[in-house]
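User: Hi! I'm working on a homework problem where we have to compare a predicted structure to a textbook description. Could you give me the structure for the chain below?
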Amino acid sequence: MSPNPLHPRPHRLALAIVGLLPLAPAFAQEAAQTPAEKEAATLDTVEVTAQRKVENIQDVPVSISALDAEKLAVFGSGGNDVRFLSARVPSLNIESSFGRAFPRFYIRGYGNTDFRLNTSQPVSLVYDDVVQENPILKGFPVFDLDRIEVLRGPQGSLFGRNSPAGVVKFESVRPSQEFDGYAKVGYGSDDMWNLEGAVGGGLTDAWSARASVLFQRRDDWVENTGPGENDGYEGYDESAGRVQFLYEGDGFEALFGAHARHLNGTARLFRANIIEPGTNDLVDGFDETRVALDGLNHSELDSKGANARLRWDFGGYKLHSITGYESVETYSRGDIDGSAGPYFTPEIPFASETADGIPEHSQWTQEFRLESDTGTAFDWQAGLFYFKEDYKVESFSYDSLAGGAQDGYERIRQTNDSWAVFAAGTWQLSDAVELRGGLRYTVDEKELAVEDYWNSGFAACVGPTLGILPPPVLCSRADLLAAEGAGGSLSRAPEDKKLSWDLSAVYKLNEDANLYARVATGYRGSSIQAAGAFNRTSVAGPETSTMFEAGVKADLWDKRGRIAFGVFRYEVEDQQLTAVGGAANANILLNADKTIGQGFELDFQAYVLDNLLLTFGSSYNDTEIDDADLRVAGCAACTVTNRPELDPETNQPTGRYYIDGNPLPQAPKWTHNLTARWGIPAGDGAEFFVFTDWAYRSEVNFFLYDSTEFTGKSLLEGGLRVGYTWNYGDYELALFGRNITNEVQVVGGIDFNNLTGFINEPRTLGAEFLWKF
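Assistant: Happy to help. Predicted structure tokens:
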């Protein structure tokens, strides 16, 4: 099947999507009623915990979007993983070179493309009040959630380090005394199954519980025509579960939770030479359902965790204790060269088959937070936070020409200990003016050591003068120690001490509209990249962001509509960047002097008719690297458009390029999203409905340098759901489609030897039945 790319220009997209409304309108929030019973539809109040307490989203002086359970269920109906959130709210992008296992989050164009398993990200993910630090933990499946909140901009005061770009908060449905639950079964193309359910209720007068489960699977939909062991690719089976117990006593509440995940499938599928040289088009005749590989492709993952959230109510004060434990084990192996040869040609210069895994991991977190609730003009919260992480990462290389025999290995150990003290306050200065502020002081200690290393394959050791020794050379830990220079240390142990703060104000125009302004800072701790076959150990120092934003939030037309609009500008000092690939196969950390981002965000929703709800979001993000001397290695087989560095003696290009003025990688300037559902009452609590949703992002750079081939085209993906509900929403039967236009685009690449890339998820068609009880 050949691709059918769509590339609407940003300024035309809104009109194009609105034109679809007669075909598939808006998203309903209540069951159908008879004409005699029906009242004018209004929007429910959206409550969020962006400031660590429950508030109306319209009153919080932060740029926030919230996705409720109904929308999440629709977006995930094709068995999709957390990446389905990408572009579903303004300024959010998510991508992965590991597939379902390792999502990378970007907010306002600010993120981290580093693919190593010990990396950190400037977007923090918090699941049920517990931070998920390792990037593998961030891919936990989306099911039985009350809502997801996306907080844009630095959140360094209340959420701490590694949140200078923002926070994505997942809130599970809590247990209650009322017996309820649901069961859902979906089936689709490529033998896709999506099974999901939950049940909960009271156990005693004080205790209640809730259990939730998920199972998803899909057959391989890409055929392997090469000699590799895999017959096909892109299949998976995944299961996850969560159990919660809630105790509600007199002045005391305790919520205990445990969860686990298992994933088994193929790793991200790399495809050699799929980009037409001199363009960013797919090559003529590209067939997304076929590939030829000779290496092994496999991915497996197991994670588990538990938490205890305790709250004591002392009248005017509440004490919170949040204890969390997380652990993950994973292994992913792929044929990185993306082909079955013939090797040592201009198209496939060499074979590359690698794997990475985490054999041991543990993360412990503890927070104590005291919150006032005195009913006076001033309220505050203050607390202590402790974080401890200890894990090992293994990296493997294999010789595809020798039947996949292992020819390299490295094991590192990284520990991270951090503690913080924080405080925040809210002062109601007058009926119309509210001021907020917060401070957080963090101490962050990290240590990385190379425990074992050897390599006897194509990749040679780094020589003492940073030159590459000619193969074949046996590389060992001793060789790396020698290459490290005086002392021969393969360990690094940076320590950071940072003060983060924020200050905001809300001005109440009237009962329905607020103006707000905010200035905030955040930081990400130092990162370490271990020495290996092609590079020495590199360390990137901490980065610090400062952001200014202002906006308006308003309810419209007697709460039939709602709007939030804001503008922002941020600067990141010493931003950590990862230079990967290139002709030298580099993988090093860098600090840019400064990066700048600016733009706006719009969130709008309204009942156009009583049975027609429209939501629309849009964002503009203009990012720029501001460092006149920063250079990175360019690709081996693409057209780099940046200014080349010249050797001062020979005046010949060195293979490196200046990236000053470039946008950040994976940072689209435009994102747009729309949902629409039209409900047609059928009497006696029944309803026919049509739902559509669309998400658009403009083109992106895959790497730090600008190049013709590794510029990802704009991407527009749509969904459609047609169904029937009865018994006032207790039952639903629907047909669905995800990526209904079958958009096929390159969404990432590997640049070290050829025009290798990977593509977005395929179209999925299916049916789903839902029972709520």
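For your comparison, note the following. The longest strand covers residues 405-428. The mean pLDDT is 90. Good luck with the assignment!
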